[in-house]
Amino acid sequence: MSQTPVIDADQSSFKECYRGRQSWLHHAAYLRMGKVQLALTLCQKARLSLSGKDILDYGFGAGTFYRYCPRDSRLFGVEMDAENIAAVRGMLEERGYPSVDLQRIEIERWAEHPLLARKYDVILCSHVLEHLPDPAMFLKRIGECLEPAGIFIGLVPLNERIMDPHHVQRLNEAKIRDLAETAGLRVTHYLEADPWLYWFQPLFTRDRGWVHQLAQAVSLGLGLPATLLGHRLWFALGRVYAALSMSKPTQAAFVLSKGSAA
User: Fold this and answer.
1) Comparing C-alpha atoms, which of 113, 117, 150, 122 is closest to residue 54?
2) Pairing relation of β-strands 120-126 and 54-58?
3) What does DSSP assign to residue 224?
4) Cβ atoms 152, 185 nearer than 8 A
């Protein structure tokens, strides 16, 4: 396995961006909740239970997905910022999760990380593949960490009206299936959803300034009802909103498992 970094240098702004962001309002922001909602919807449609599972969240960010995992699941994860890792670990301890193993990762040696030396029932990778120069190589290595019946849950952006400057890939269903096949995995479920941010998407390509502040307001404005309504109702409302607003889906979610596509 090559030790070439899978994340370009321009991704460095993500190293400390989650510090001090563990309040309920931060976790309700739609840039987090929209991803969590879609992951939960995919699990529901694919009839995947997270209870009692060993779950690795590769690039867990502020740890919002963990908050929706059953208490009997065993949580693992990697991130770049030690301060953020300590905050997420503390948040999960306060919420009563007894089995948590979160560790810092150095991107230059990502493939050698100790947590990638073991096997998992579920591996979540939310909005990571679009940042990678060689996502097929990444999927192949991560696929080695799946139990024989394990699953990989991936989330990626779709239909970007203006491409985010941090993204180096434009992904769609055909490319996802091709990447999976190249990595020796197969797509068992695929879902496109979440039209809510389609018309607002250009706002989220800025890292600072008044446009960035407006994007944060939009994220919170959508995130609060999404959090309160739950993923089932929010997903159903999204179909209605898409029809009325002519919005396209902004995220794809998919399940990969071991073995080539038939």
Assistant:
1) 122
2) parallel
3) H
4) yes
Three-state DSSP at 71 gives coil
Give me the residues paired with residue 15 across strands: none
Phi and psi angles of residue 105, each rounded to the nearest 5 degrees, phi first: -120, 140
Alpha helices in 47-81 (DSSP H): none
For 184-195, the pLDDT digits (tens) are: 999 999 999 999
* Calpha distance 145→152 (Å, rounded): 10
Please name the amino acid found at residue 37. Q
Backbone phi, psi, residue 224, to 5°: -65, -50
User: Which amino acid is residue 79, in one-letter code?
Assistant: E
For the chain, the helix, strand and coil percentages under 3-state DSSP, each to the nearest 5: 45, 20, 35
Gyration radius of the chain's alpha carbons: 17
Residue 73 three-state SS: coil
pTM score: 0.91
Hey, how many other C-beta atoms are within 10 angstroms of the C-beta on 229? 14
Domains and their CATH numbers in the chain: 9-258 (3.40.50.150)
CB 247 within 8 A of CB 198: yes
pLDDT digits (tens, 9 = 90+) for 21-63: 788 888 999 999 999 999 999 999 889 999 999 999 999 999 9
